[in-house]
Amino acid sequence: MSKTVLQTEDQKKMKGYAQNATIIYSLLFPFLLWFAGMSGMVADSPS
Q: Which H or E run includes 26?
């Protein structure tokens, strides 16, 4: 017996937004992490 999941247009739109936000976040996270590490080194002023 198969169950069909009915999605409204709003639910489909929100799913798309969530997928896009996840992809953008996963692409930007390494850069944000690297910048956070660099700012700590700059504040320490290593020579």
A: helix 9-44
CA dihedral sign of residues 22, 24, 30, 34: negative
Each residue of 26-45: b (16+ CB within 10 Å) or e? eeeeeeeeeeeeeeeeeeee
Does this model's pTM top 0.70? My answer is no
pLDDT category, 2, cuts 50, 70, 90?
Answer: low
- Give Cα separations from 28 to 4, 18, 37, 42 (angstroms): 36, 15, 14, 21
What's the residue count for the chain? 47
